[in-house]
Amino acid sequence: MNHVIAIDGPAGSGKGTVARLTAKRLGFRYIDTGAMYRAATLYIRRQKTDINNPAAVTAAVQQCSISFSLSEDMQEQYVLLNGEDVTEEIRSPDITCLVAPVCSIAGVRTYMAGLQKAARDMGPLVMEGRDIGTVVYPDADLKIFLTATIDERVRRRQKQYKENGIEMDFQQLKQDMSQRDMIDSTREHSPLKKAPDAVTINSDGMSVEQVVDRIITLFREKTAK
Fold first, then answer.
1. Phi and psi at residue 101, in whole multiples of 5°?
2. Which end of the chain has fewer CB atoms < 10 Å from its terminal CB, N or C?
3. Per the structure, how many domains does the chain have?
4. Shortest CA distance to 31 belongs to which of 52, 7, 49?
């Protein structure tokens, strides 16, 4: 069976960057489940589906196609919604504000989890999200719970927005992120939580390379047994 590294953690913890680089160094596929939910949220917004109607949202999500593609140099991953590159659009503040309610719908999570589980058939992978080690891949070779202090996570998210030409107020971002943390950790279906056998890595004061090195060392120790 193909190897799986599951990386979970709250918003802004650096999961995406760390997972992508870990996958690159190991020659694994990288799956950003957060991007999948964001793409679904964008589709729902475009279809003007009532976000307060779980059945309608679930039905709409099941009608859209979400996939990934790589740049020619294999350095960048693009998110495709029905074949359209929406990589930048799904990271907008508007989608960020809407994605948590969509993620909390049981039907949406069940459907997405099915797609995520099927990814294993395509080869070894590094998958990041909020319920990968607890729900999607409870049998993952290695489970990581990646976290950081709220202020550090806000700084990272603010920097990400700025790189995309968007100026965001620190305190507003902090309030939004705290609200997202609350929704993610208290939702009834597949809440954000650390798997019992996951290794916690607090990335405060660590470079991306140091975190990736730690994960690869842990993976090799696990799979050498």
1. -60, -35
2. C
3. 1
4. 7
